[in-house]
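not sure who needs this but someone in the group chat was asking about Aminotransferase from Rhizobium paranaense so here u go. i didnt clean anything up, its just raw.
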Amino acid sequence: MAINTRSQIDAMSFRPASRIASIGVSKILQIGARANAMKREGFPVIILGAGEPDFDTPDNVKEAAKAAIDRGETKYTALDGTPELKKAIAAKFQRENGVDYTLDEITVATGAKQILFNAFMASIDPGDEVIIPTPYWTSYSDIVEICGGVPVLIPCDAEVGFRLRADQLEKAITPRTRWVLLNSPSNPSGAAYSEADYRPLIEVLLHHRHVWLMVDDMYEHIVYDGFKFVTPVAIEPRLKERTLTINGVSKAYAMTGWRIGYAGGPKALIKAMAVIQSQATSCPCSVSQAASVEALNGPQDFLKGRQASFKHRRDLVVSTLNAIPGITCRAPEGAFYTFAGCGGVIGKTTPKGKRIEADSDFTDYLLEDAHVAVVPGSAFGLSPYFRISYATSETELAEALRRISEACSKLQ
Ligand code: PMP
């Protein structure tokens, strides 16, 4: 059949919805795709961009998944988590955080990313504001925007330890503020909030009862130098009625592909999030939920060994970067990222005669000249910095750092 009317032609060309107009494909994914394309062309590219541990999922967790399949646990489950998993999560919150959540205050989703999505979808009206300190994990602002909200970005640079201060929070709160979103330890900075860091922020929140707190504790188990992880509700129980405490199995148990995240929060919010989930996925994967029960209830001692290995790599990255003229790197308290300042190379010229104007020029140069893929600070809302993920083998890491040093020494 011939297509000859305007409406038929229009119907064929895709027009994206306005809600995604300002949201591009994640810069991290773009850099990964470029680095992989170069690898396919034969360049020896080392990618320090991945946000996932290079360790394997523990064997006991894999066995639990296999046993669940053999028991026939391959059907839809309860909408926002099996009772077994919710019980394991409640026990985890009790044991590790000293916080009591009942089963109807707990929700499980397809990754912590979906927890964030469900929470914002369930709570944000057009124009509602969400305070997000930068540098931030890029999905935060994108999800807020998809949900019609307004991300209010507050720069928190290396001088303040990449942490939001109480006066900044106080100034950013308006009658439209719905949430403040904190991530400790942080992706991308690795900075974490101690109890003393949290207290002044909590004081501010106690004075603004309309503001809810969302905390992303995803990297809780990856902390160094005896840092004492704490979650805000454990510090101030009065915040519990308006806090969503997010966590997951992806990073601690090297289970990124299993897609299980969870949260504890007030019943009404948890119920509203379930409404969104019921129309999005019906439930998280049954087999992954069984595996996560084992991850949370099973032996935890291997976490220490992994932490020690990450710490070793962190020390290597921090000391090597700090020895490079023009680069400064704060030692992060946790996670497996460093967010190094590259202000000292801005204005310099590469051997090919290109002037480095921004952190993305620097990371482009590292990819092209040194064949090392890292992510510019601009992708996380704060410049001039670059993020290194050190969740990679020590041999590869050492070689990547050697190449970065060499590339920097060639700048004029
Ligand atoms: N929060 C932070 C800070 C993250 O870095 C990530 C993963 N990159 C997530 C949440 C999401 O984790 P997942 O969806 O795998 O549970």
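also The chain has a mean pLDDT of 95. if thats useful
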